[in-house]
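> Could you send the Dynein regulatory complex subunit 2-like prediction when you get a chance?

Sure thing. Input:
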Amino acid sequence: MVEQKPEELSEEFAKMVMDYTGMENFWKRYNKVKLEQLSLKRRRVQLLDINGKLREMLKQYLDGISVSDEVLSQLNPLFIVNHRSNLPSALSPPAAPPGAKPPRRHLQHH
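Output:
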């Protein structure tokens, strides 16, 4: 067995400590990147959900202002022909003809 001088041992120890510190910094950076990656994945899922909802709202809006066979076959409160909507009568009040006056209410005098 070869004897080492104390100075050589302390140099080796210093190198080991430096290597350990370098690895510790590496793992800190690695974990930070992993956390950021996880955060970005979660945000992506949130944004995809919001995007889906906005697309559905936009489709409803565009369907409401468009006239096509598909749109006309569905219930649409904006679609009125001959002063009537295509909604069931329980869902919509009757549309008054253009220029018609609202019905007058008669007040009873006591």
